């Protein structure tokens, strides 16, 4: 797409929010970053601008204003915080793409807070019935964004959702971040995707991957 | 967020509060800053934009890089590359904001569903397209048959608010004139 899309990142100073903002700033996007930590946010915007003079990026005043201007809203916040955030942005997110990156992990990292018949993405869709919720970026660690090629292989990044157009637009986002986008299926496939990251975290802890690990589908 | 949209809608076809609430589900509020693009040529036009606040223009760019303004749109107006929106072919127009603006976007899927579910939306759409057709016919007739001075006088008579808000060089582009020719014409009209 030639027309520059505006992307709002809510929770932009977190591990994922800042990694996503940095990598998308290299693409044809206008970024609006929102965080409650104003000093950290200003520093992040400054850092991105100093690395890339062409970056079209700004700190946003509030999530509602950012969402109002945005075409795509990325919630880079914990699963537990999504209900409150969804309530704030519901009106401005109408008919827009909202990206769910959350993995609803429990406190001990050995299970999910969601029941098997749902997922964080589907719960978000229930909270934002008129938005196009797309699952993406949940199977990639924050550290992978600076190294999307691991062991010589480009990390795959899975995407799930119900709107064809929105899936394509988010695929472009994922490709801009340096990953290979794979559209996995409808939004309910998020259940599998969220469990995949639980497994990767467990394996990472067991075998000491040091958070630099990812999924790669081998096929011929 | 939707005040002007529903005021405009109700002036064409009256809606109940319940209908308004249901139609709202299909609309998308969008803010856009001055000089930002809503659409670039080559992309598919996915939305019809209703202007709540602000001003936008659509234009085509020729092989020499010159802009030719097709349409201005102020509060209460609609702007899109309708050809691209309706056929799904790539757009030949660019649309950008002349001022910071607030829009109500209706995407293609929402538009199709609204047409099926709400006969009043179909009436609203018919009236919008009829008005757009009339404006286009008026513009075409004036371009091919009226003397330049008369074209400009007609334009300021019909669209006084555009003349107030939009820079002269854009009006010149809309009229198919160079800014110099337009200012000569304005002087001539003023001196009459
Ligand atoms: N870390 C990873 O490698 C990774 C990988 C895949 C997916 N994810 C998912 O990405 C999301 C963000 O993870 P993260 O690792 O970036 O977390 P993080 O570093 O802790 O950042 C989360 C951000 O969310 C905001 N926030 C809003 N409400 C909050 C609340 N109630 N409690 C805590 N923070 C709150 C905070 O920013 P404010 O200053 O604005 O409050 C914070 O900076 C999570 O849903 C996670 O499951 C993470």
How would you summarize the topology of this molecule?
The complex is a heterodimer of chains A (220) and B (192).
Chain A: E1 5-10, H1 15-24, E2 29-34, H2 38-51, E3 56-59, H3 63-69, E4 72-75, H4 82-89, E5 97-100, H5 120-127, E6 132-135, E7 149-150, E8 153-154, E9 156-161, H6 164-176, E10 180-185, H7 190-207
Parallel strand pairs in A: 1-2, 1-4, 2-3, 4-5, 5-6, 9-10
Antiparallel strand pairs in A: 6-9, 7-8
Chain B: H1 3-12, H2 17-24, E1 28-32, E2 37-39, E3 47-53, E4 55-61, E5 67-74, E6 78-79, H3 82-87, E7 94-97, E8 101-107, H4 108-117, H5 119-145, H6 148-158, H7 160-165, H8 168-175, H9 179-191
Antiparallel strand pairs in B: 1-8, 2-7, 3-6, 3-8, 4-5, 4-7
The structure holds NADP nicotinamide-adenine-dinucleotide phosphate.
NADP nicotinamide-adenine-dinucleotide phosphate is lined by residues 11, 13-17, 35-37, 76-81, 101-103, 138, 141-142 of chain A.
Looking at this protein, list some descriptive labels.
heterodimer; A: 220 residues; alpha/beta; eight-stranded mixed sheet; two-stranded antiparallel ribbon; 7 helices; 20% strand; B: 192 residues; Jelly Rolls; 2 domains; four-stranded antiparallel sheet; globular; binds NADP nicotinamide-adenine-dinucleotide phosphate
Q: Which topology of the largest domain in chain B does CATH recognise? A: Jelly Rolls
CATH class of chain A: Alpha Beta
Number of helices of chain A: 7
The share of residues in helices of chain A is 25-40%
Give the C-alpha Rg of chain B: 18 Å
Order of SSEs of chain B: HHEEEEEEHEEHHHHHH
- The overall number of domains of chain A is 1
Distance between termini of chain B?
Answer: 44 Å
The H-and-E topology of chain A, N to C, reads as EHEHEHEHEHEEEEHEH
For CATH, the homologous superfamily of the largest domain in chain B is named as Jelly Rolls
Strand content of chain B: 15-25%
Beta-sheet strand percentage of chain A? 15-25%
Q: How many strands in all of chain A?
A: 10
What structural class should be given to the helix and strand makeup of chain B?
alpha+beta
Gyration radius from CA atoms of chain A, angstroms: 16 Å
Number of strands of chain B: 8
Query: What form of chain B results from the Cα inertia axes?
Result: globular
Overall mean confidence score, pLDDT of chain B: 95
């Amino acid at each position: 797409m030639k027309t520059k899309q505006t992307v709002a990142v809510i929770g932009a100073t977190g591990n994922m929010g800042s990694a996503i903002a940095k990598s998308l700033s290299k693409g044809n996007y206008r970024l609006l970053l929102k965080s409650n930590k104003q000093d950290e946010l200003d520093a992040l915007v400054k850092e991105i601008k100093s690395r890339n003079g062409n970056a079209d990026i700004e700190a946003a005043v509030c999530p509602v204003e950012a969402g109002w201007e945005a075409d795509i809203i990325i919630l880079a916040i914990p699963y537990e915080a999504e209900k409150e955030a969804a309530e704030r942005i519901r009106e401005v997110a109408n008919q827009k793409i909202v990206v769910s990156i959350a993995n609803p992990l429990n406190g001990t990292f050995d299970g999910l807070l969601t029941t098997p018949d749902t997922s964080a993405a589907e719960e978000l869709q229930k909270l934002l019935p008129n938005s196009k919720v797309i699952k993406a970026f949940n199977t990639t660690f924050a550290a992978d964004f600076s190294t999307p090629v691991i062991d010589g292989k480009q990390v795959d990044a899975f995407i799930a959702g119900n709107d064809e157009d929105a899936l394509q637009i988010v695929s472009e986002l994922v490709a801009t971040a340096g990953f290979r986008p794979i559209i996995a299926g409808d939004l309910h496939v998020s259940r599998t995707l969220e469990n995949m990251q639980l497994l990767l975290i467990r394996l990472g802890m067991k075998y000491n991957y040091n958070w630099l690990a990812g999924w790669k589908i081998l096929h011929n | 967020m939707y005040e002007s949209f529903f005021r405009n809608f109700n002036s064409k076809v009256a809606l109940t509060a319940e209908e308004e609430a249901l139609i709202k589900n299909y609309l998308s509020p969008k803010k856009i800053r001055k000089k930002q693009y809503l659409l670039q040529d080559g992309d598919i036009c996915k939305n019809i934009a209703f202007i709540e606040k602000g001003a936008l223009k659509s234009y085509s760019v020729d092989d020499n890089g010159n802009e030719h303004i097709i349409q201005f749109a102020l509060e209460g107006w609609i702007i899109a590359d309708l050809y691209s929106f309706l056929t799904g072919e790539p757009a030949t127009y660019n649309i950008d904001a002349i001022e910071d603006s607030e829009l109500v976007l209706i995407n293609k899927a929402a538009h199709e569903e609204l047409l099926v579910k709400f006969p009043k939306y179909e009436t609203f759409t018919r009236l919008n397209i009829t008005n757009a057709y009339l404006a286009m016919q008026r513009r075409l007739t004036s371009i091919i048959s009226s003397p330049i001075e008369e074209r400009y006088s007609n334009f300021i008579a019909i669209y006084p608010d555009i003349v107030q808000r939009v820079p002269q060089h854009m009006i010149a582009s809309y009229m198919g004139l160079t800014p110099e020719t337009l200012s000569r014409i304005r002087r001539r009209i003023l001196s009459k």
